[in-house]
Write a structure and sequence with these properties.
The complex is a heterodimer of chains A (347) and B (75). With 347 residues, chain A is α/β, with parallel strands linked by helices. Chain A contains 13 helices and 11 strands. A 6-stranded antiparallel β-sheet of chain A has the order 6-7-9-8-10-11, with helices on both faces. Chain B is an alpha+beta fold and 75 residues long. In chain B, strands 1-2-4-3 form a 4-stranded mixed β-sheet, covered by helices on one side. Classes of the chains: A alpha/beta (347), B alpha+beta (75). Bound molecules: iron/sulfur cluster.
Chain lengths: 347, 75
């Protein structure tokens, strides 16, 4: 019997990578999944923060996919290395801050390293020509293969028949005749194949696999970079951009106001890293200050957060200001009326 | 039986799963790992990760806003 070949499948949690892996498993190849965690992945996070989402915890789709397929899944933390991809994308951004093409090249490159370290033979992805405007076009397929260094070790089972033969096909590890030639934006062929395999209840993310395709998230990221004067970020920044209302009345600071209980609790965890504000005379949300506020700025921030608490109609509200080091002071402010919070302050 | 503890408090999924995975890699079959988290998502994600990778869940419990999972490393 010939030796069983091994493939590493990039698993995003969506349907396409699930189908691609299944097609290759069906051909008798040993498949294991790899999922890269950039910090921006839609998986997890927000559901753990907001109260209403906490009640019904969501599954992690990539783990779910691996379990459905009966394969192992390796989740790889690439948060640090990903910074360079997002900050300096050679091929630019998509419609928002999503550097999809560079991201794909990066992930396939990481997968290439992984297969070398783990004795696997080739890589598979769920890419389909023409499916996504930026990264999945006919011209970009060879760019990803070449710039990632994976070259013909990269097989895309769902559209392979439209692409030149790869090593696994030439060597007969997989049968090209049993691969597919999907192309275009239609989801129909994938749905049909899913039905054939008996897959139900799979995830169909609308935008893409990460927050960077989201317009309002991207706007907050751009705002952060502009006002810090440097294109950089830490994981905490990435998390905080997903939480609360972000209000920037002046360029030197912004206020992050919790929208509900769960968010207040989450922001609590950052009290050692940020100055925090909360009303002590009325109940209301916790807020963090990102930046270097003056005393005058703190009063302004106090008026903003007073607007979101029970004291919004009171003449005066006490605000407890706590520095990162734990120094506390109470200031009295008059809550802003809704129209006093300028629309352009909302990031 | 030796038991290690992993502090995954304040980490949001999938980070607790990643930290668990990386720790388990350095352990041997039969050893136990207690993971302490604050993200309730781990109650689904860590057991799912264990099922996929052949490790056994010995205990899961929620107390005082913390979620504790004890697993035994498989072969
Ligand atoms: S949507 Fe996000 S994770 Fe997916 S390819 Fe684009 S940048 Fe990468």
């Amino acid at each position: 019997m010939s030796e069983q070949r091994k493939a590493a499948a990039l698993i995003s949690g969506g349907l396409d990578s699930m189908l691609a892996a299944k097609v290759i498993i069906e051909q008798g190849v040993h498949v294991e999944g790899i999922n890269f965690f950039t910090g921006f992945c839609v998986e997890g996070h927000t559901h753990a923060i907001r109260e209403r989402d906490r009640a019904k915890p969501k599954r992690n789709n990539s783990l779910w996919v691996a379990e459905q397929l009966g394969i192992k899944l390796h989740i790889v933390d690439v948060i640090e290395e990903y910074k360079d991809v997002l900050i300096n994308p050679k091929h630019g951004y998509g419609s928002n801050m999503n550097p999809c093409l560079d991201c794909k090249i990066f992930m396939v490159n990481k997968a290439k390293q992984w297969i070398q370290e783990n004795g696997f033979d080739f890589i598979i992805t769920g890419e389909v020509i023409g499916q996504r405007p930026m990264s999945q076009r006919k011209q970009t397929m060879p760019i990803i293969a070449r710039e990632s260094g994976a070259d013909d070790l990269l097989l895309r089972p769902l559209c392979a028949r439209n692409l030149p033969e790869t090593l696994p096909e030439r060597e007969g590890w997989v049968d090209r005749a049993k691969l597919f030639g999907f192309s275009g934006r239609s989801r129909k062929p994938q749905m049909e194949l899913a039905q054939q395999f008996g897959f139900v209840d799979y995830a169909q993310p609308a935008g893409g696999c990460c927050f960077l395709t989201d317009e309002s998230y991207s706007a907050k990221l751009v705002d952060l970079w502009q006002n810090r004067g440097t294109k950089d970020y830490e994981l905490d920044d990435v998390m905080l951009l997903k939480v609360g209302r972000h209000i920037r009345p002046k360029s030197n600071f912004k206020v992050i106001v919790a929208r509900e209980e769960g968010e207040s609790r989450f922001l609590e965890g950052y009290k050692k890293e940020f100055t925090s504000l909360i009303s002590s005379s009325h109940s209301g949300p916790l807020a963090l200050i990102d930046g270097e506020p003056t005393d005058e700025d703190l009063a302004l921030a106090g008026r903003i957060i007073a607007r979101y608490g029970q004291g919004r109609d009171a003449e005066q509200v006490d605000i407890l200001v706590r520095s990162q080091k734990g120094l506390e002071q109470t200031i009295q402010v008059a809550p802003f009326a809704p129209e006093q919070i300028a629309e352009e302050w909302f990031v | 039986m030796s038991r290690e503890t992993l502090n995954a408090r304040r980490l949001l999924c999938p980070l607790p799963v990643i930290r668990t995975q990386d720790r388990v890699k350095r352990m041997v079959a039969g050893e136990q790992l207690e993971v302490i988290c604050t993200d309730p998502g781990v109650m689904q994600d860590i057991p799912a990760w264990c099922r996929i990778n052949g490790h056994a869940i010995l205990e899961t419990k929620a107390e005082d806003g913390e979620y504790i999972i004890v697993l035994e490393v498989g072969e």
